[in-house]
Amino acid sequence: MFVLAMRSIRQRPGRFMATLLSAFLGAAIIMTFNSMHDTAGQRGVDSVSAETLSTTAAVVGGYGTLLVFFAVASTVTVNIRQRTAEMELLRCSGATPGQFRRMVVGESVAVALIGAVVAIGPAMLGGRLLLEMFQDTGQVADSVSYSFGPVALLTGIDITLLATVGAAFLAVRRATRRRPPRGGARTLLAYAALVLGALGVCSTFAFSATDAALMAPPVYGAVLLSAGFALLTPRLLSGMLGRLPLAGASGWVAVRTLRERASQLSGVLMPLTLFTCLATATLYMQAVENDVIDASGVPKSVDAKNLETLNLTVVGIIVVFACIMLVNSLYAATTYRRREFGQQRLAGATPGQVLGAVGVEGLVLTATGVSFGSVAGLAGILPFTMVRTDSVWPEQGLGMWLGIVAVAAVATLGTSLGTARRTLRTPAVEAVALAA
Amino acid sequence: MFRRNRRGTADAGPAPEALRLVKVSRTYGSDDSAVTALDGVTLSLARGTFTAVMGPSGSGKSTLLQCAAGLDRPDRGIVVVDGTEMTGDGEAALTRFRRERIGFVFQQYNLLPTLTVAQNTILPLKLAGRRVDRRRVKEMLTAVGLGDRLGHRPDQLSGGQRQRVAIARALVTEPRVIFADEPTGALDTRSAREVLELLRDAVRTHGRTVVMVTHDPVAASYADSVVFLADGRLAGEMPAPTVDAVAERLAHLGDGVTAGV
């Protein structure tokens, strides 16, 4: 089975690109930030520098790791769910479900390892740049040299492997069962994430306003909350869909497709919710933080300005990562629907009608993901603002949030419509004949 | 408005000739590696007939069906369905042409896995923006023996049942011509017989025209006549086919072509 797994990767590298890309980016992010731990742990690093470095590693590296875990897991899930046809074929050629499971899990181990190993180089480069930024802004002494050590390496490889293999195991177990399961493990995971998230958000109040790591618990909490929502929403969604007033053939097809595919939607909803939540939470918190520094009466020095830029850059990296993951898994999910689109066309749908249905689905997805992501993000922002300032609501307007929503909508609709359009170039008869 | 009118005139009376192909050619690939799948095929089928198209693998029978059904465009030649020439360029125009006149049955059923039996059946009507008469849809599904499975999804049905849904779906738009591509290719003998009887019934009772590509002499024997194809050209016709006669003819199809050259 291992040989088959390796062959399956070699023969169709394209199919593994989405998983590989997410494993690579995820590992790179984790290693970049966690190498700050290694750098701080070197002998001869002064205590101020060491604290700055390990705070960054703990805060950003921490929630970044959590984000990577969920994002990678959802990409893997999306990809494995699409392989039922191949599974049927293998079953017909005499493979037991156990063999198929070992094959899929074996593939994911290989892909995750390749991704993580390839990520080492870029992560070292990224870490070095990050350290230079710290040194340029005077946060870290110039004498500190960069180190890429066991913490970065181990967390990077371990988390990527755990997310990939865990998700592969759960997804393939679901796929090889003859009867559709009730999703017990999934529900449990969702509730655990929600409870932990709520605890994380509440624990913000245990910190003092000047704590360097004050931003960590609310963001952790928000990320967990949005992951929990993303796991639970498909079920809520399928209930709500019946009441959507959607007219036209495209709307009719979209609603029915969404309702039936609701259980598979969490794979796409996850990165969307995570992106919205993380972008909203971190950008607003950073803005609040900057305002507090401004208001502290000290005239704005060059250093303070640099610090703001630095913080936004760090947050920006994570937000961009979340956005790439969103595009990545949507692309994978839509490519796999070539056959379904072909069948719609053979039943008499014009290309415009197929795209119309995809567009309606995209709108429903965006609305759902953005709503839950915003709620989760807000749940992180409010405690932070309450502890850091005297008010409950941040003073920043809705402008930033609208920007985030716009990016989420453009990424979701743009990716799904663009990918669907590409699949429509294949004649319908061929599209239907292609095996996945 | 324009579309309604066109449909209106078509309803006024179907053309006596359901399908006509004039010197239809189709070549795949380019230059050196070009393969001629259809080589100047001319064919005319009257309304209310059941025709089987047969030939060895690679004889061009699937290409013939796809060109005639507007799923593929011939390089040269004319395709006329129900008295109207197929001229649309672009998939949207071709799709509109097809859904007014043509129904499909495929070997792999091609039902949408996310829709129920009833929803799959009314899908072509929904897509064409036509009124859905639920009572009639139920009657239609009852007629193919699936009146009690309206809410089932395709993966809960056997192959034979899926194909019967596909036939109901093909009939629901009241098309002039139904194209069937190896409709029994994936079925056991009993299911195959049911499917073939339904197709024959569509011709006899409802006056539809059915064109079926098959390699199975038994399936072909349900048709009124068989058209043989070899190397992209017509290689004869057999009215009132029997299983043995078709099998015999098929076995010697290669000889006939060689002798003719």
From TrEMBL, chain A:
Annotated transmembrane regions: 57-80, 109-131, 151-172, 188-207, 219-237, 265-285, 310-333, 354-378, 398-417
ABC3 transporter permease C-terminal domain mapped to chain residues: 64-178, 314-427
Domain of life: Bacteria
GO cellular component: plasma membrane
Predominant location category: membrane
Membrane topology reported for the UniProt record: Multi-pass membrane protein
MF annotations from Gene Ontology: transmembrane transporter activity
Protein name: ABC transporter permease
Gene source species: Streptomyces acidicola
Automatic annotation (TrEMBL), chain B:
GO molecular function: ATP binding; ATP hydrolysis activity; transmembrane transporter activity
InterPro entries per record: AAA+_ATPase, ABC_transporter-like_ATP-bd, ABC_transporter-like_CS, ABC_transpr_LolD-like, MacB-like_ATP-bd, P-loop_NTPase
Domain (ABC transporter) ranges: 19-256
Origin superkingdom: Bacteria
Keywords tagged on the record: ATP-binding, Nucleotide-binding, Transport
SMART domains: AAA (SM00382)
Pfam families, alphabetized: ABC_tran (PF00005)
Cytoplasm among keywords: no
Cellular compartments per GO CC: membrane protein complex; plasma membrane
Residues annotated as signal peptide: none
Protein's name according to its UniProt entry: ABC transporter ATP-binding protein
Lineage of origin: Bacteria, Bacillati, Actinomycetota, Actinomycetes, Kitasatosporales
